[in-house]
Write a structure and sequence with these properties.
CATH architecture of the largest domain: Beta Barrel
Radius of gyration: 19 Å
Number of domains: 2
Structural class: mainly beta
Shape: globular
CATH topology of the largest domain: Elongation Factor Tu (Ef-tu), domain 3
Number of strands: 11
Largest sheet: 3 strands, antiparallel
Distance between the termini: 30 Å
CATH superfamily of the largest domain: Translation factors
Strand content: 25-35%
CATH class of the largest domain: Mainly Beta
Length: 176
């Protein structure tokens, strides 16, 4: 899960404080990076003052409201979401690049999900249509970009359509 250090994209240098590197960080941080004080920021527990060095690209973070160009299933539970950036904006694509999407609090009925005909049989078999996703508060989640490097003006994401997000109630509940 992204909040458990599985992506390995939130690297910062912790020059003082932060404690020892955790097992959850080991698969993402090389020995050389350990020597250079690199840590996964999502795993560092703040229990004292920290002296950290943040990569400069972090300060170029921007927030956009995008238009949905398409949102299609590419497998039974995998969606391909293509977002159009505002005119004149672009994301410099690089391997391992990611963006964060904020989902507003609310109740989302699975019966309202657009699912392509070829995948509806699987949804019908388990009657997923009867459930709701309930977000008690807004949830922000990181997604790896699935763009081709030369695509401009869009962001493409592929994600599980039934994934349980932090903030989503422990179980999907049946719609009334």
């Amino acid at each position: 899960m992204w909040w458990q250090g599985e992506l390995g994209v939130c690297k910062v240098k912790v020059l003082d404080g932060g404690g020892a590197i955790l097992p959850t960080e080991r698969s993402h941080i090389s020995r050389g990076e350990v020597r250079d004080c690199v840590r996964l920021s999502c795993q560092v527990k703040v229990k004292q003052d920290l002296d950290i060095e943040i990569p400069p690209e972090i300060f170029n973070v921007r927030q956009w409201q995008c238009r949905v160009r398409s949102n299609h299933n590419v497998a039974t539970f995998i969606k391909e979401l293509v977002l159009e950036l505002p005119e004149g904006e672009e994301v410099p694509f690089r391997a391992g690049g990611y963006i964060q999407i904020e989902a507003p609090a609310g109740t989302y009925d699975y019966k309202d999900y657009a699912v392509e005909e070829e995948y509806k049989t699987d949804w019908d078999q388990f009657n997923f249509w009867r459930y709701q996703a309930v977000l008690d508060e807004p949830v922000t989640r990181a997604y790896s970009m699935a763009n081709y490097p030369d695509e401009k003006g869009v962001i493409m994401l592929k994600f599980e359509s039934l994934h349980r997000h932090p903030g989503l109630r422990r179980e999907h509940r049946r719609a009334k």
